[in-house]
């Protein structure tokens, strides 16, 4: 499995989790730590301008989805 396939697999896992659970991964749940660490790592790369060009749009979509879920869960 190449690096791009692994990235896409993790991306899909995180996106599916957020859409299914209607919440972002929690730092308080051990089983969600890998997803949270993946998001943090990619957010750092994105902020530094080091995220690969083919991943930028997908990651932006994920950040928007996370922001929407943050606000939705805030009012429930």
What's the layout of helices and strands?
Blueprint: H1 3-21, H2 33-48, H3 53-74
Written overview of the protein:
The chain has 76 residues and is mostly helical. The protein has a domain at 27-76. Helices cover 75% and strands 0% of the residues. It contains three helices and no strands. The chain has helices at residues 3-21, 33-48, 53-74. It starts with a helix and ends with a helix. The relative contact order is 0.15.
Entry keywords:
single chain, 76 residues, mainly alpha, globular
Overview in brief:
The chain is mostly helical and 76 residues long. The protein has helices at residues 3-21, 33-48, 53-74.
Portion of residues within helices: over 70%
Write down the overall mean pLDDT. Answer: 93
- Strand coverage percent: under 5%
Shape: globular
Unreliable residue stretches: none
What structural class results from the helix and strand content?
Answer: mainly alpha
Q: What's the number of extended β-strand segments?
A: 0
Tell me about the largest β-sheet: none
């Amino acid at each position: 499995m190449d690096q791009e396939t692994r990235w896409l697999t993790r991306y899909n896992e995180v996106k599916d989790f957020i859409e299914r659970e209607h919440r972002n991964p929690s730092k308080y749940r051990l089983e969600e730590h890998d997803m949270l660490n993946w998001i943090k790592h990619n957010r750092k790369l994105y902020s530094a301008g080091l995220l690969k060009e083919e991943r930028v749009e997908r990651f932006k979509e994920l950040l928007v989805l996370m922001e929407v879920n943050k606000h939705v869960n805030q009012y429930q």
